[in-house]
Amino acid sequence: MALYRKLLLAIDFASDSEMLCWHASEMAEIHGASLSLVHVVEPVVTDSAFDTLPPIPVDFDDIH
Fold first, then answer.
1. Which of 30, 11, 28 is nearest to 20 (CA)?
2. What is the torsion angle, in degrees rounded to the nearest 10, for the CA atoms of residue 17, residue 21, residue 24 and residue 30?
3. Does any domain span residue 19?
4. Distance, CA of 37 to CA of 33 (rounded, Å)
5. Closest Cα partner for 39 from 10, 5, 8?
């Protein structure tokens, strides 16, 4: 029985994020687990009636 079935890695795109992703990927492979990455962004508040900006489009092909 695998020790882990699902792994969740919170990333902030800091300089060590690539190394952390590599280690998490290796750990997931060793345990036969799935790996999910999450990056949380706080909503941006504008001055006009405190509306939030629309979502920023992300091209996941650009992420290494």
1. 11
2. -150
3. yes
4. 13
5. 10
In the chain, the DSSP E strands lie at: 6-10, 34-38
Using one digit for the tens of pLDDT, what is the confidence trace for 4-29?
A: 899 999 998 888 889 999 999 999 99
CA gap 60, 42 in Å, rounded: 19
- In this structure, what is the dihedral angle of CA atoms 18, 15, 37, 6, given to the nearest 10 degrees? 60
Residue 31 lies in a domain: yes
Domain count, the chain: 1
Q: Which residue has the tokens 């280690």?
A: 23
Residue 1 within a domain: no
Indicate the pTM of the whole model: 0.60
